[in-house]
Amino acid sequence: xxxGVEQLNEQMKPVMQAENLLQTKNITQTDxxxxxxxxxxxxxxxxTIAEDGLSIRLTAQQTTKRGEVQQAVIETIGRFLEAExxxxxxxxxxxxxxxxxxxLQRLIERIQLVPSLPSRFLETLQRAIQTSNMRLAEIEExxxxxxxxxxxxSRYNSLSAFAKRKLYPAYRNxxxx
Length: 177
Known about the structure:
This protein is mostly helical. The protein has one domain (2-176). The protein contains 6 helices and 2 strands, in the order ααββαααα. It has a two-stranded antiparallel sheet. A hairpin with a 2-residue loop joins β1 (49-51) and β2 (54-56). α4 packs antiparallel against α5 (120-158). The longest helix is centred in the last third of the chain and has 39 residues, at 120-158. The N and C termini lie far apart (90 Å). The mean pLDDT is 87.
């Protein structure tokens, strides 16, 4: 009988692990990556343990709790992914965009290993990658604009107050372009 109880406790172990992680106020990508295998375990069918002619299984309360925790894990992962998608809109450097896309790609790979998760999670991450690509293009374009403005400002600052146009061959050459 003791062995059967230990097996039941083993079936409840993912519930306890998930509850511990779900208590975290600010869920991080590491927390989500830790929740993914737990989510898989929570989706595994429960087995009835037969020992010494007795059948041992989780109580209705334990089964309900397992289902509630399973749902809470899915909701928590979903909220994190939505927050990550929104975060992509506020990236400010090319390096940030690259790191962000790498993290998203890692999450996609990890989520694909858990077939019980909703397909909308992968769709959310794909949209986040698209957002990051658009943001990267905006950053690159702004960098080009800033470079041009700096070049114009530098040329302007090099002019003297009484300069004549013909003294500046760079001006004449750029005018022909």
